[in-house]
Design brief:
One of its GO terms (molecular function) is isomerase activity. By secondary structure, the protein is an alpha/beta fold. It contains twelve helices and ten strands. Helix 4 packs across helix 6. The longest helix is centred in the middle third of the chain and has 20 residues.
Length: 255
Protein backbone atom coordinates (compact mmCIF):
# COMPACT_ATOMS: atom_id res chain seq x y z
CA UNK A 1 0.00 0.00 0.00
CA UNK A 2 1.30 3.42 -0.93
CA UNK A 3 4.97 2.69 -1.66
CA UNK A 4 7.76 0.14 -1.84
CA UNK A 5 8.56 -0.43 1.83
CA UNK A 6 11.99 -1.70 2.88
CA UNK A 7 11.46 -2.45 6.58
CA UNK A 8 7.74 -3.25 6.83
CA UNK A 9 4.62 -4.44 5.03
CA UNK A 10 1.25 -2.70 4.98
CA UNK A 11 -1.99 -4.41 3.94
CA UNK A 12 -5.56 -3.13 4.38
CA UNK A 13 -8.23 -5.77 4.88
CA UNK A 14 -11.80 -5.47 6.20
CA UNK A 15 -11.23 -2.04 7.71
CA UNK A 16 -7.95 -3.02 9.38
CA UNK A 17 -4.51 -1.74 8.43
CA UNK A 18 -2.05 -4.56 9.15
CA UNK A 19 1.37 -2.98 9.60
CA UNK A 20 4.02 -5.68 9.90
CA UNK A 21 7.65 -4.98 10.77
CA UNK A 22 9.95 -7.01 8.56
CA UNK A 23 13.63 -6.09 8.70
CA UNK A 24 14.59 -9.26 6.84
CA UNK A 25 16.05 -11.22 9.75
CA UNK A 26 15.19 -12.97 13.00
CA UNK A 27 14.79 -9.69 14.87
CA UNK A 28 13.16 -6.36 14.03
CA UNK A 29 15.39 -3.49 15.10
CA UNK A 30 14.08 0.06 15.37
CA UNK A 31 16.88 1.74 13.44
CA UNK A 32 16.43 5.17 11.88
CA UNK A 33 15.13 3.93 8.51
CA UNK A 34 12.56 1.67 10.20
CA UNK A 35 11.25 4.48 12.42
CA UNK A 36 10.98 6.82 9.42
CA UNK A 37 9.01 4.20 7.48
CA UNK A 38 6.77 3.48 10.45
CA UNK A 39 5.90 7.16 10.68
CA UNK A 40 5.09 7.27 6.96
CA UNK A 41 2.98 4.11 7.09
CA UNK A 42 1.02 5.33 10.10
CA UNK A 43 0.36 8.64 8.33
CA UNK A 44 -1.03 6.72 5.34
CA UNK A 45 -3.32 4.70 7.60
CA UNK A 46 -4.43 7.86 9.37
CA UNK A 47 -5.38 9.48 6.06
CA UNK A 48 -7.14 6.41 4.61
CA UNK A 49 -10.90 6.40 5.37
CA UNK A 50 -10.96 2.64 4.70
CA UNK A 51 -8.72 2.05 7.74
CA UNK A 52 -10.67 2.09 11.02
CA UNK A 53 -8.20 0.15 13.16
CA UNK A 54 -4.45 -0.56 12.90
CA UNK A 55 -2.60 -3.74 13.90
CA UNK A 56 1.14 -3.40 14.46
CA UNK A 57 3.16 -6.60 14.68
CA UNK A 58 6.40 -8.37 13.83
CA UNK A 59 7.07 -10.47 10.75
CA UNK A 60 7.90 -14.12 10.29
CA UNK A 61 10.92 -14.08 12.63
CA UNK A 62 11.02 -14.41 16.40
CA UNK A 63 10.32 -10.84 17.44
CA UNK A 64 7.82 -8.04 17.61
CA UNK A 65 10.68 -5.52 17.89
CA UNK A 66 13.97 -5.52 19.77
CA UNK A 67 14.74 -1.84 20.02
CA UNK A 68 17.54 0.20 18.53
CA UNK A 69 20.28 -1.25 16.36
CA UNK A 70 23.29 -1.43 18.70
CA UNK A 71 25.69 -1.38 15.74
CA UNK A 72 24.11 1.91 14.68
CA UNK A 73 24.33 3.34 18.21
CA UNK A 74 27.86 2.31 19.20
CA UNK A 75 29.47 5.45 17.72
CA UNK A 76 26.79 7.86 18.94
CA UNK A 77 27.81 11.09 20.58
CA UNK A 78 25.43 13.12 22.79
CA UNK A 79 23.90 14.97 19.81
CA UNK A 80 23.38 11.71 17.88
CA UNK A 81 21.65 10.25 20.92
CA UNK A 82 19.43 13.32 21.27
CA UNK A 83 18.39 13.28 17.61
CA UNK A 84 17.66 9.54 17.62
CA UNK A 85 15.67 9.79 20.84
CA UNK A 86 13.61 12.67 19.46
CA UNK A 87 12.89 10.68 16.29
CA UNK A 88 11.65 7.71 18.32
CA UNK A 89 9.58 9.86 20.65
CA UNK A 90 7.97 11.59 17.65
CA UNK A 91 6.83 8.17 16.37
CA UNK A 92 5.27 7.21 19.69
CA UNK A 93 3.60 10.61 20.03
CA UNK A 94 2.19 10.15 16.53
CA UNK A 95 0.76 6.76 17.56
CA UNK A 96 -0.90 8.16 20.67
CA UNK A 97 -2.34 11.14 18.79
CA UNK A 98 -3.69 8.97 15.96
CA UNK A 99 -7.47 9.08 15.71
CA UNK A 100 -7.46 5.32 15.08
CA UNK A 101 -7.07 2.51 17.62
CA UNK A 102 -3.70 0.78 17.37
CA UNK A 103 -3.38 -2.84 18.48
CA UNK A 104 0.09 -4.10 19.33
CA UNK A 105 0.19 -7.79 18.34
CA UNK A 106 3.22 -8.95 20.31
CA UNK A 107 4.13 -12.14 18.49
CA UNK A 108 7.49 -12.78 20.18
CA UNK A 109 10.54 -11.04 21.63
CA UNK A 110 9.78 -7.44 22.63
CA UNK A 111 12.83 -5.68 24.03
CA UNK A 112 13.99 -2.15 24.83
CA UNK A 113 12.62 0.27 22.25
CA UNK A 114 10.33 -2.54 21.12
CA UNK A 115 8.80 -2.49 24.60
CA UNK A 116 8.34 1.29 24.24
CA UNK A 117 6.71 0.72 20.84
CA UNK A 118 4.28 -1.71 22.48
CA UNK A 119 3.54 0.79 25.27
CA UNK A 120 2.44 3.34 22.67
CA UNK A 121 -0.22 0.99 21.31
CA UNK A 122 -3.76 1.33 22.64
CA UNK A 123 -4.12 -2.41 23.23
CA UNK A 124 -1.48 -5.14 23.59
CA UNK A 125 -2.31 -8.72 22.59
CA UNK A 126 0.44 -11.25 23.23
CA UNK A 127 1.42 -14.67 21.96
CA UNK A 128 2.34 -17.08 24.73
CA UNK A 129 5.86 -16.98 23.25
CA UNK A 130 6.26 -13.36 24.34
CA UNK A 131 9.47 -12.30 26.06
CA UNK A 132 9.38 -8.65 27.09
CA UNK A 133 12.13 -6.65 28.79
CA UNK A 134 13.98 -3.37 29.11
CA UNK A 135 17.64 -4.53 29.12
CA UNK A 136 19.29 -1.10 28.78
CA UNK A 137 21.03 -1.26 32.16
CA UNK A 138 23.03 -4.26 30.90
CA UNK A 139 24.35 -2.06 28.08
CA UNK A 140 25.04 1.00 30.20
CA UNK A 141 22.12 2.98 28.75
CA UNK A 142 18.46 3.68 29.41
CA UNK A 143 15.62 3.95 26.94
CA UNK A 144 15.39 7.24 25.07
CA UNK A 145 11.91 6.54 23.77
CA UNK A 146 9.98 7.66 26.88
CA UNK A 147 9.77 4.24 28.53
CA UNK A 148 10.83 5.64 31.92
CA UNK A 149 7.72 7.83 31.84
CA UNK A 150 5.17 5.52 30.25
CA UNK A 151 5.97 2.29 32.06
CA UNK A 152 5.27 3.55 35.62
CA UNK A 153 2.04 5.12 34.41
CA UNK A 154 0.97 1.71 33.11
CA UNK A 155 2.20 -0.76 35.73
CA UNK A 156 3.15 1.44 38.71
CA UNK A 157 6.43 2.85 39.99
CA UNK A 158 7.62 -0.21 41.93
CA UNK A 159 7.15 -2.68 39.09
CA UNK A 160 8.63 -0.25 36.55
CA UNK A 161 11.75 0.08 38.72
CA UNK A 162 12.02 -3.71 38.83
CA UNK A 163 11.76 -3.96 35.03
CA UNK A 164 14.49 -1.37 34.46
CA UNK A 165 16.82 -2.38 37.26
CA UNK A 166 16.83 -6.15 36.75
CA UNK A 167 16.68 -6.19 32.91
CA UNK A 168 14.70 -9.41 33.38
CA UNK A 169 12.76 -10.86 30.45
CA UNK A 170 9.15 -11.62 31.41
CA UNK A 171 6.93 -14.22 29.81
CA UNK A 172 3.40 -13.61 28.60
CA UNK A 173 1.52 -14.64 31.74
CA UNK A 174 3.77 -12.58 34.01
CA UNK A 175 3.48 -9.62 31.64
CA UNK A 176 -0.31 -9.87 31.82
CA UNK A 177 -0.21 -10.08 35.63
CA UNK A 178 1.88 -6.91 35.71
CA UNK A 179 -0.47 -5.12 33.31
CA UNK A 180 2.04 -4.95 30.44
CA UNK A 181 -0.32 -6.82 28.09
CA UNK A 182 -4.10 -7.10 27.96
CA UNK A 183 -4.64 -10.62 26.60
CA UNK A 184 -2.55 -13.72 25.94
CA UNK A 185 -3.31 -16.29 23.23
CA UNK A 186 -1.63 -19.60 22.36
CA UNK A 187 0.87 -19.05 19.57
CA UNK A 188 -0.96 -21.52 17.32
CA UNK A 189 -4.16 -19.45 17.39
CA UNK A 190 -2.57 -16.04 17.91
CA UNK A 191 -3.17 -14.51 14.46
CA UNK A 192 -6.81 -15.62 14.12
CA UNK A 193 -7.50 -14.20 17.59
CA UNK A 194 -5.75 -10.90 16.77
CA UNK A 195 -7.76 -10.60 13.55
CA UNK A 196 -10.98 -11.35 15.41
CA UNK A 197 -10.34 -8.51 17.89
CA UNK A 198 -9.25 -6.13 15.10
CA UNK A 199 -12.30 -6.86 12.96
CA UNK A 200 -14.59 -6.30 15.94
CA UNK A 201 -13.05 -2.88 16.59
CA UNK A 202 -13.13 -2.04 12.87
CA UNK A 203 -16.89 -2.59 12.95
CA UNK A 204 -17.39 0.26 15.40
CA UNK A 205 -18.15 3.88 14.52
CA UNK A 206 -14.83 5.60 13.63
CA UNK A 207 -15.71 8.92 15.25
CA UNK A 208 -16.79 7.22 18.49
CA UNK A 209 -13.51 5.30 18.57
CA UNK A 210 -11.54 8.48 17.95
CA UNK A 211 -13.28 10.50 20.66
CA UNK A 212 -13.06 7.63 23.12
CA UNK A 213 -9.32 7.19 22.53
CA UNK A 214 -8.58 10.90 22.85
CA UNK A 215 -10.63 11.35 26.02
CA UNK A 216 -9.25 8.28 27.76
CA UNK A 217 -5.67 9.27 26.87
CA UNK A 218 -6.32 12.80 28.15
CA UNK A 219 -7.82 11.57 31.43
CA UNK A 220 -4.37 11.24 33.04
CA UNK A 221 -3.61 14.91 32.39
CA UNK A 222 -6.86 16.68 33.33
CA UNK A 223 -8.90 16.89 36.52
CA UNK A 224 -12.27 15.16 36.72
CA UNK A 225 -14.35 18.33 36.27
CA UNK A 226 -12.61 19.35 33.05
CA UNK A 227 -12.65 15.76 31.84
CA UNK A 228 -16.42 15.70 32.30
CA UNK A 229 -16.79 18.90 30.27
CA UNK A 230 -14.62 17.44 27.48
CA UNK A 231 -16.79 14.33 27.46
CA UNK A 232 -19.99 16.38 27.26
CA UNK A 233 -18.68 18.11 24.15
CA UNK A 234 -17.68 14.87 22.45
CA UNK A 235 -20.93 13.12 23.41
CA UNK A 236 -23.12 15.88 21.99
CA UNK A 237 -21.00 16.24 18.84
CA UNK A 238 -21.45 12.57 17.96
CA UNK A 239 -25.21 13.10 17.73
CA UNK A 240 -24.68 15.49 14.82
CA UNK A 241 -23.86 12.44 12.70
CA UNK A 242 -26.75 10.80 10.92
CA UNK A 243 -24.77 7.57 10.87
CA UNK A 244 -24.44 7.63 14.65
CA UNK A 245 -28.19 8.12 15.07
CA UNK A 246 -28.88 5.25 12.64
CA UNK A 247 -26.48 2.94 14.52
CA UNK A 248 -28.17 3.78 17.83
CA UNK A 249 -31.63 3.18 16.35
CA UNK A 250 -30.56 -0.15 14.81
CA UNK A 251 -28.96 -1.25 18.08
CA UNK A 252 -32.04 -0.66 20.17
CA UNK A 253 -34.24 -2.26 17.52
CA UNK A 254 -32.24 -5.48 17.90
CA UNK A 255 -32.44 -5.52 21.69
Amino acid sequence: MGRNWKTLRLVVEEGVGYLTLDNGGRFNTLHRACIVELKAALALCEADPEVVCIVLSGGEGESFAVGANIAEMKDFGPLDGLNFSELGQSLFEQMEESTKPIIGALNGITMGGGCDLALSCDMRLASDRLKIAHPGAKLGIITGFCGTQKLPRLIGRAQALEVFMTSEAYGAEEAMRMGLVDRVFPHETFWPEVKKVARRIAGMHPAALSYGKKLINASADVDLKNGQIMELGAFSTLFSSGDARKRATDFFARE
